[in-house]
């Protein structure tokens, strides 16, 4: 699905995120909740106004999962199977929300990388994250 | 109608005053064509779209991007009447250009990413929120006359 060049782009960007999963993830969630408030409906346990600690904790968890996906680009289905089960059986996040998260992910990347955020990186990451979303929602029915 | 708070309106106006509309337009359209290649279907007459480099440096892409974004800029001056402002353009995109309105949402999202790239930290979650509301409003206005 991803070409060799695209995999390189994904890995290159991940190198910049690795080690900063918590802060990156927290900003991602903050943007998601600010820009698309309806997404908060899936995070009742974080309360109406999640604080920084909660965002960092949950953000880290999400970004670590993205890291797993990066390490297993060749076999997302197997690597993300437990998460796919979780989303299908427990979380049941409506699939329409994943593009919202992906948009916020791109904005975090763009605002941090700025001049280094090439069009090839944006294309590769959009394709990669869309692939992850497909796998996470595949077992829904 | 777009419902921006007073703070959101001033954030949008302040940021937009620093935007090089001509350049950002070309970049946004170029990125749309690269990231979502199926959107190239509307631009058969634009010449070489064979690679990201070709697209980003294509003079027709830049010119058209500039045109699109100048139009968007007009919308920003009329946030209270986007449907009226874009009525003619909406008819054009439906009757002559046959563009699926989904593409307006895609371009809006790419534009937000381009702004984030240019403004970095200044493009806070609140500013992003304001701009996403604006691009959604413009997309809806452009779809309004479809039949």
From TrEMBL, chain A:
Gene Ontology cellular-component terms for this entry are: blood microparticle; haptoglobin-hemoglobin complex; hemoglobin complex
Molecular function (Gene Ontology), one example: haptoglobin binding
Q: Which InterPro entries match?
A: Globin (IPR000971), Globin-like_sf (IPR009050), Globin/Proto (IPR012292), Hemoglobin_a-typ (IPR002338), Hemoglobin_oxygen_transport (IPR050056)
Any idea where the Globin domain is? 1-141
Q: Which Gene3D superfamilies match?
A: Globins (1.10.490.10)
Task: Please tell me whether the keyword Transport is annotated for this protein.
Answer: yes
Keyword set includes tRNA processing: no
Keywords attached to this entry: Heme, Iron, Metal-binding, Oxygen transport, Transport
CDD domains from the UniProt entry: Hb-alpha-like (cd08927)
Instruction: Fetch the Pfam families from UniProt.
Output: Globin
One GO term under biological process is: hydrogen peroxide catabolic process
Q: Which family does it belong to?
A: Belongs to the globin family.
Q: What is this protein called?
A: Hemoglobin subunit mu
Task: Tell me which species this is from.
Answer: Neomonachus schauinslandi
TrEMBL record, chain B:
Please give the superkingdom of this protein's source.
Answer: Eukaryota
| Pfam families the record matches | Globin
Q: Name one GO cellular component term.
A: hemoglobin complex
Which GO molecular function entries does the Swiss-Prot or TrEMBL record give? haptoglobin binding; heme binding; hemoglobin alpha binding; metal ion binding; organic acid binding; oxygen binding; oxygen carrier activity; peroxidase activity
Metal-binding: present as a keyword of the record?
yes
Q: Which PROSITE patterns does UniProt cross-reference here? A: GLOBIN
Q: Which keywords does the record carry?
A: Heme, Iron, Metal-binding, Oxygen transport, Transport
Tell me where in this chain the Globin domain is found. Answer: 3-147
Keyword Iron (UniProt): yes
Q: Name one GO biological process term.
A: hydrogen peroxide catabolic process
So what family is this one in? Answer: Belongs to the globin family.
Under what name is this protein listed? Hemoglobin subunit beta isoform X1
What's the encoding gene here? LOC110576224
